[in-house]
Design goal:
There is one protein chain. The longest helix has 13 residues. The protein is built from 11 helices and 15 strands. Helix 5 packs parallel to helix 8 and helix 10 packs across helix 11. It starts with 5 loop residues before the first strand and ends with a strand. It is an alpha/beta fold and 367 residues long.
Length: 367
């Protein structure tokens, strides 16, 4: 398979029975559905709990009332249309509202619903803001998935960023290497563009999202190697998702396979309390235990990921637990004075998010 057809209607999936099709259409009417033939070929349809199916096929439990559409309060940090500036050195540029498939647990699913216009098809204002803010050293191009843009359009954005002296790192956030790796393997112009703009002193980072080891197919690994050969740096991030990777063996296998092929395990996220996500969410303390058990079976190169909550106030790292307490640290913060701050709370096994911890024991500034 060298090309893949995109599927946006439940009726296009022949494996569904009539009753299931009716139920899932109701979910797709609320939260957009999109996949493609390549990714569908990875699903084991005989297994109703198949993890690849879980990632991309609607679930009726998504209709449960839980969470908010902007769980990390991204609107507060939007400084120009399509541009977020939450932390001093990093800007986030939203350039498309389309992906190769829509993860059912997506924290930006609001982008794929009517009435939301947060992405910027014209990046002029965002580029100007970046140009005027010398404290910025790196820009994350995301959306949606930037690799849904034509290479020509993507290169125009990257070229403008490379003309700004203080931008050292350009990051491209993408799940296309899992959803449709042919997008990379078959596009020599994309690889030439990466080679041109990922220089010896200013690298392009490809921030992949492999959630399960089975996504690391031969063609996906080929896509990773193509980008590595073009001079990109690969780093992977994934949330812990119920029914996908919420057991230590699966997560450990993912970390190890990524390390074997030269893709650094970077962030492991606590699933954000986004609308529709309750069925995918794992309580914080269970997530921590899964993560720690997974690391035990990994080499140092495979255990470089940090366990993070992308909270409205910053990236909060979950760093430890005792029988009575749980320990957090501000890995990054909207308030620079809080970076490195260490927080101790009484444990709450029912907590899904930082806000669910209401009984602090202590807080220590960075020493």
């Amino acid at each position: 398979m060298t090309t893949t057809k995109y599927l946006t209607k439940i009726e296009q999936i022949p494996e569904f029975g009539d009753e299931e099709r009716v139920a899932l259409k109701k979910v797709a009417e609320k939260f957009a559905f999109r996949t493609n033939e390549y990714y569908m070929s990875l699903i084991g349809w005989d297994d109703p709990n198949d993890p690849i199916r879980r990632i991309v096929i609607p679930d009726v439990e998504e209709l449960d009332d839980w969470g908010s559409m902007d769980a990390s309060d991204e609107r507060t940090y939007t400084v120009a249309h399509g541009l977020q500036h939450k932390y001093g050195s990093t800007a986030v540029l939203l350039v498309t509202d389309v992906c190769g498939g829509y993860c059912r647990f997506c924290f930006r699913k609001r982008l794929f619903t009517n009435g939301h216009d947060e992405i910027s098809r014209d990046v002029t204002d965002g580029i100007q803001y970046i140009r005027l803010h010398n404290e910025l050293t790196n820009v994350l191009i995301t959306g949606g998935d930037p690799l849904m843009l034509s290479t020509n359009k993507l290169e125009k954005i990257i070229q403008q960023l490379r003309e700004i002296d203080h931008i050292q790192i350009i990051r491209i956030g993408t799940k296309m290497l899992a959803f449709n790796p042919h997008r990379v393997v078959n596009d020599h112009a994309l690889l030439e563009m990466v080679q041109k703009y990922s220089t010896d002193e200013k690298k392009i980072y490809i921030m992949t999202q492999f959630n399960h080891p089975r996504e690391l197919t031969d063609i996906s690994i080929e896509a990773i190697n193509c980008l590595l050969g073009a001079g990109a740096v690969i780093a992977n991030q994934t949330p812990v998702i119920r029914g996908v990777n919420d057991d230590p063996k699966t997560l450990s296998t993912l970390f190890k396979k990524l390390s074997f092929i030269g893709a650094t395990p970077y962030y492991v996220f606590q699933c954000r309390p986004t609308s529709g996500n309750k069925t995918f969410a794992v309580p914080v303390e269970e997530t921590y235990n899964i993560f720690q058990q997974a690391l035990k079976d990994c080499s140092g190169l495979a255990k470089r990921a940090r366990l993070i909550m992308s909270h409205s106030t910053g990236k909060i790292e979950i760093v430890g637990m005792t029988e009575e307490c749980i320990f957090f640290k501000y890995h990054q913060s909207t308030d620079p004075e809080q970076i490195g701050s260490f927080m101790v709370f009484k444990r709450n096994p029912d907590a899904y998010w930082f806000d669910d911890y209401r009984d602090p024991v202590a807080k220590y500034p960075d020493s």
